[in-house]
Amino acid sequence: MDSENDILSRVAEMVSGAKNILVLTGAGMSAESGVPTFREAQTGLWEKYDPQQLATPEAFERNPSRVFGWYHKRLSMVRAAQPHRGYRALVRVVELVLGKTKIVTQNVDGLHRRSGSEGVIELHGSLDAFRCTGGSHDFPSDEVLSLIPDAVTGNLDPPKCRICTSPVRPGVVWFNEMLPEAALREAWRTAEAADLALVIGTSALVHPAAGLPSVAARRGGSIVEINPERTPVSSIADVVWNSTAGEALSSLVERLESAHR
Length: 261
Fold this sequence. Notes:
Strand content: 15-25%
CATH architecture of the largest domain: 3-Layer(aba) Sandwich
CATH class of the largest domain: Alpha Beta
Strand order of the largest sheet: 3-2-1-7-8-9
Distance between the termini: 30 Å
Radius of gyration: 19 Å
CATH superfamily of the largest domain: TPP-binding domain
Low-confidence stretches: 39-47
Number of domains: 2
CATH topology of the largest domain: Rossmann fold
Shape: elongated
Helix content: 40-55%
Number of helices: 12
């Protein structure tokens, strides 16, 4: 088994030599910032809450105040969270490598953008992007946060769109909904062009995002997985780095910076 230093050296060499890098991140990337994952046993959001009651168009239609109140709470939570050192390190990686790097995330918390990453493809939308159900007109997230949920139930009636008066909903992709076509198309093109894919903190269970590493691999790209646990990606990865995002990416930046001195 390779030592931690051997893995770090190999990944640093792969990153330095890559011309097109895909960075795919999932809920594990946010976990170190205190944002709950979705599927982790006991602590994941879908272990505690029924997604069919909170994360489908049908649930919103049945009980809009319960669904909207839950997403108001989630937005408040992620606004309070701070990007951990791995996010800042990833920004620095992009600065240090000569190749083109594109971040594709399954996360909806906006931590990549808040850490300074640019051009992030948010495949599942964003908690910060509210829109109406009638004409998809944007609605300010700060105004959503100014609303006060019921103190007992946490329910909150969705505000009305100022343009068409239809109810406002979270700008995330719910179960049974299609991913944004433009974002998915760009993510697929990025994977097809990648000679290296860094797969960080994703369970690799949610498709079509979970298929992006395989797309890169089929085109001849190398795969580096950074995750404390094994996932379906582990079997196709050239390097499996069993570490947290914060630890691994910080170490990677130190190694890359030392090579640039």
